[in-house]
Amino acid sequence: MTLPNFITLARLVSVPLIVWLIVIQNWTGATVVFVLAGISDGIDGLIAKRFGASSDLGAYLDPIADKALLVSLFLVLGFQGVLPPWLIILVVSRDILIVGGVILAWMLVNPIAMRPLWVSKFNTTAQIVLLALVLAEHAGIKSLSIAIWPMIITTAGLTVGSAGAYLAEWLRHMAGEEPQREEG
User: Fold this and answer.
1) How far apart are CA 73 and CA 41, in angstroms?
2) Which residues contact 42 (CB under 8 A, 6 or more apart)?
3) Which among 31, 52, 117, 123 could bridge 158 via Cys, Cβ 3.0 to 4.6 Å?
């Protein structure tokens, strides 16, 4: 267990707390815990890379924590009527597509390496920013309201683009082609 793994586990443990805070409409508490969880996502990666503290566990744990946090919040905010249903469907469907593709490749004895694409990193960032804006608005920071619809559209576009990029990567992998390398 490395320090980045502990930070990632803390993010994972924060998910039910944030969902509960939203359900009881403690928007300020939900905003604070979510922003800390979002910051922790950057910190664990920075520590892992900068100090050579990456691990095989972390390579799997980090995306699981991200998916748990983001999908849970999109779902609860969707059920609360705070975000449009079509956006929830896009976000959740993309993640089901990715996880389903990984499982299917594994079942067909052709496992695919889990590595985020750049469009996915931008997508995750857009999702975090959108959720932070929505939570902050409900916590009483109304000046952020003007940025929410542009972030919804940006998030939707990046979600579709990311799903398409992962699908193309999966198809190349299943066809036996060499994966495209990204710099970063």
Assistant:
1) 15
2) none
3) 123
